[in-house]
Amino acid sequence: MTRKKGPKIVVIGGGTGLPVILKELHQRNAEITAIVTVADDGGSSGIIRDYVNVVPPGDIRNVMVALSDIAPEFKDIFQYRFRSQDKFLAGHAIGNLIIAALSEMRGGIDPAIRELSEMLQVEGHVYPASAQPLVLHAKFTDGTLLAGEAEITAAHKDIKEVWVGNNPWSENKKPHAVPEALQAIEEADEIILGPGSLFTSILPNLMIEDIGRAVLKAKAEIVYICNIMTQKGETINFTDAEHVRTLNRHLGQNFVDTVLVNTEIVPESYMDFNRYDEVSKQVVHDFKGLREQGARVISDNFLLLRDGGAFHDGQKVVDELMNVCSNPIKKRD
């Protein structure tokens, strides 16, 4: 279910950070399009993609719930994850199974998402970055190579670059984007990257050649929401400028227009590093390095402390995103 709204905002990424922003954007006067990574091969999503040959459904599920207008109790059912004692279904979310079933019933992920969007009363557009599940590849600074998002992250080595390829059973030689996603990028007033894992949630989308090309050609303001904490196996010791430098390097030019960075200190004593074991330490600021890359820097207290972890405060971030949309530095026709 979609309604014509105000500014056209495209959000690109995956993981747990994306729904936080989408849920708040959903409350605003915006026409939202979410473009979601399909390179996840861990957990329930990875198991389902291997058995059913469907794009990993987990990130799509979370995004659809964030944009859904159905009653909370129905969202809870859709999001319910079976307990480990259930063995056969252990770890699977009901929504993942429904997405996989509809993909099989309707002959692909696109008709499945359209039908499920109607059922869930989704306000906005949700597109997988590609209709095919993709494999993430990485080259590390020591020259070694690995394939598979879960293995890349688990290696806990410094990543030099990533790229994506089709899974072994795909008939296509090169990954291609969903056409509707490319159209949304072309028509957008604002394109938001993140928050999320730099190498495994954001870059896999941009490494699909036609998505990367569309972003570079976009007339929209391109905003990167920098992570609050560094991530083991991905961005250990990265400054905010190094996050942006990595994005720019992968697309071959400085394309990020505006960067949102949190300046509030995360109390180390608050963090539950056992629960958030992939988190390392707070991202260090390098405003000079950001500006040298041509980026406008918007710094503020965007921090939300919750459940022993450091998260973005969706309301504060989206307040700023809407301000940026009203006052872009990138001129549109």
UniProtKB/TrEMBL annotation:
| Any Pfam family the entry gives | CofD
GO cellular component terms, alphabetically, are: cytoplasm
Protein's GO biological process: regulation of cell shape
**Could you tell me which CDD domains the record lists for this protein?**
YvcK_like
Q: Does the keyword Nucleotide-binding apply?
A: no
- Output the Gene Ontology terms for molecular function: LPPG:FO 2-phospho-L-lactate transferase activity
Localized where? Cytoplasm
Q: Which SUPFAM superfamilies match?
A: CofD-like
Primary localization class, coarse: cytoplasm
Name the keywords, alphabetized.
Cytoplasm
Which family is it part of? Belongs to the gluconeogenesis factor family.
Q: What is this protein called?
A: Putative gluconeogenesis factor
Where is the organism placed in the taxonomic lineage, from the top? Bacteria, Bacillati, Bacillota, Bacilli, Lactobacillales
